[in-house]
């Protein structure tokens, strides 16, 4: 470590190793975003409103391109509501009209009522542009780590710090 | 620098890194001018890629996904290209090169690549020498790390330098003090007796008999003393 500080090129190279790990992860994420046309192509289920299809902590892969066909009733979609930060995973249960203008209604499989309650004040339906993707694949439970991390934020700091230290100190 | 730090002798990475670091320190002291082109290209590629990533992060954060989609697509492609070039540079061009330098006196250019195999404590060097008139020569060296690390993990400069100066002509030329012919080891043993004779003399010695040694072996063995002289001396 100390010898690395005496040699600026070696220090720069070690810092670069760390930077490249972070940036490659980020660019892979962005690449996936661009391919799936979704700002957030992988999401984690946070609530039990879609049980038994999805449990808390399931990892969902999204696809947001309508190739040759429209988003149909029965699809599980992830959508954003104006004024709310967290996207919601629910099933599309009603559709009026066609294309971009179609009025869509969603409902959680495990919920008694449809989602009108969850939409913004005065909003009775969502549109295609609110949807950030339909679920095309999922891995059960893997995402639970992120739930842990968001519920205990100090874990994030600890993890990042450890990762950084390991990469900077070792040259293996 | 390296000789003050102690490393774990069981860590192959430590052994290799310390030896790699010792190479430029030694060669630069022999009026070799180190060339950093390989490293600089690698750093430039890497940091450009990182810069693109940082820019992508910035515009994604400030302008959102939808309005910057095309820009992001371009950035992703450019990033993969740069990363691919970087990988090619490391595996295809650098190939573990730890030193490139030209000697200001003789004009010899040497390139040293180092390598270790997993869990085998051998230092493998490929030394390419290019003399002033363009004659190229490649030499492969394979040495055990224990030749220049003591059991506590301290780096011993002398045998390391001697190893390089003795086996690479271009280095030996500018560091004649360390350049030894490789037959050096033979000096230690000049005992020409056969195994049987040695055995017999050992037996005779333990029985307390006087042993007459061949002339060449003088100092290391017992001087002819009568009877049980040695044992008595120890007891007294």
TrEMBL record, chain A:
One of its GO terms (cellular component) is signal peptidase complex. It is an enzyme of class 3 (hydrolase). One of its GO terms (biological process) is signal peptide processing. It is a single-pass type II membrane protein. GO terms for molecular function: serine-type endopeptidase activity; signal peptidase activity. Keywords: Endoplasmic reticulum, Hydrolase, Membrane, Protease, Signal-anchor, Transmembrane, Transmembrane helix. Its main location: endoplasmic reticulum. It comes from the Eukaryota. It is found in: Endoplasmic reticulum membrane. The chain crosses the membrane at residues 131-147. Its EC number is 3.4.21.89. It catalyses: Cleavage of hydrophobic, N-terminal signal or leader sequences from secreted and periplasmic proteins. Component of the signal peptidase complex (SPC) composed of a catalytic subunit SEC11 and three accessory subunits SPC1, SPC2 and SPC3. The complex induces a local thinning of the ER membrane which is used to measure the length of the signal peptide (SP) h-region of protein substrates. This ensures the selectivity of the complex towards h-regions shorter than 18-20 amino acids. SPC associates with the translocon complex. NCBIfam families: sigpep_I_arch (TIGR02228). Catalytic component of the signal peptidase complex (SPC) which catalyzes the cleavage of N-terminal signal sequences from nascent proteins as they are translocated into the lumen of the endoplasmic reticulum. Specifically cleaves N-terminal signal peptides that contain a hydrophobic alpha-helix (h-region) shorter than 18-20 amino acids. Belongs to the peptidase S26B family. This is Signal peptidase complex catalytic subunit SEC11. The lineage of its organism: Eukaryota, Fungi, Dikarya, Ascomycota, Pezizomycotina. The gene is sec11.
Automatic annotation (TrEMBL), chain B:
It comes from the Eukaryota. The keyword NAD does not apply. InterPro entries: Spc2/SPCS2. Keywords: Endoplasmic reticulum, Membrane, Transmembrane, Transmembrane helix. The chain crosses the membrane at residues 41-59, 71-91. GO terms for cellular component: signal peptidase complex. It is a multi-pass membrane protein. One of its GO terms (biological process) is signal peptide processing. Component of the signal peptidase complex (SPC) which catalyzes the cleavage of N-terminal signal sequences from nascent proteins as they are translocated into the lumen of the endoplasmic reticulum. Enhances the enzymatic activity of SPC and facilitates the interactions between different components of the translocation site. This is Signal peptidase complex subunit 2. It comes from Lachnellula hyalina.
